[in-house]
Amino acid sequence: MGLIKKKDTKKTEQEKVEERREEVLAKGRKFKYPLQWTRHRVVINTILITLVVLAMVVIGGWLALYKFNMTDEFLFRVTKVIPVPVASVDFENVPFSDYLMLYRSSMTSIERQSGSQFDEGSLEQLRAEYQRSALTEAEKYTYASKLARESDITVSEEEVQTEFERHLNIGGIERSEESFTKIVNDNFGLDKSEYERMLYLSLLKSKVETHIDDTANKIATEVEKLLAESGNDYKAVAEALGDKIIYQETGGLVDSKNIDGGRASEAMRLEPGQSSGKFISISGDGYYFVKLISKTDSEVNFVSIRVPFTKFNQQFDQLQSEDKITEYITISTPEENTES
Fold first, then answer.
1. Shared-domain flag, residues 173 and 239
2. Any residues with CB less than 8 A from the CB of 291 and at least 6 apart, and which?
3. What's this model's pTM, rounded to 2 decimal places?
4. Which residues contact 66 (CB under 8 A, 6 or more apart)?
5. Nearest to 80, CA basis, from 62, 98, 92
6. pLDDT at 256
7. Are both 204 and 300 inside the same structural domain?
8. 33 Cβ partners below 8 Å, 6+ apart?
9. What's the pLDDT tens digit per position in 147-190?
10. Following DSSP, what letter does each residue of 209-238 receive, concatenated?
């Protein structure tokens, strides 16, 4: 029996190798599972920290935009990437980036001159005024975009580029793209793509206004007819049409680079006594007709007729009266700033 037992307990070389392997694996498990547990904890903690940081960024961004009405460049860049709304118009979101772009384009040059021309109280009043006008303008652009989509009205990249190139030569001065974009950045705080965005919005709104404003189109046709019959007598046409149009005289030579909807620059292209024909103002507020009286190398004397667009603003005002415009920020009025 003893011999048999001894034979049974004798191990082969293969069995010894398997046993040794199991011992090594068993020792390895003592380190493997605690390490896995630690790794899981690191992953979980990392996710939790990331969520907390993300929540803080979201809350901080929300407070900066919607509570404190901050308008700095960093937030402008953020809203270009993250399309958050500043308001809604007839159930269409108004991009916060458009509002900040319009506001910054108005305030940049003023803030850069603030040390010499404006005290802090005046600056605060101007900020409130420009915030209000920028928000209203952004709302109008959004409404125009909705009407354009409904009427299949579009603005191509080629049209924007053509308008951009036209702006290069405003006032009869030929500028390089590089020099013009520097002027835009210095005066409006915008780069080329942002300036092109403003041109796109302006062109789209103008197209919508000309599409929907039957009254302005009829009056413009009437102006063309009367000018042809009177030999471009602008004053006679103005007397005939009365308050349907707006007649203006410069009364003398003015700078050809005047910011007047494009009338001065258009007049600069004409010869004395020549009429421009109908064109849409740069500001998109109506049709213009211009007649050059005289000019020098840098100044022009002209008369003009404007046929204002009214239909778009009437529809926009109707939306306001029906409470179909909701704003997500509160802008203090100039009066409130003065009182504080």
1. no
2. 232, 234, 267, 270, 273, 274, 275, 276, 302, 303, 304
3. 0.78
4. 328, 329
5. 98
6. 82
7. no
8. none
9. 999 999 999 999 999 989 988 876 567 788 999 999 899 888 89
10. HHHH-HHHHHHHHHHHHHHHHHTS-HHHHH
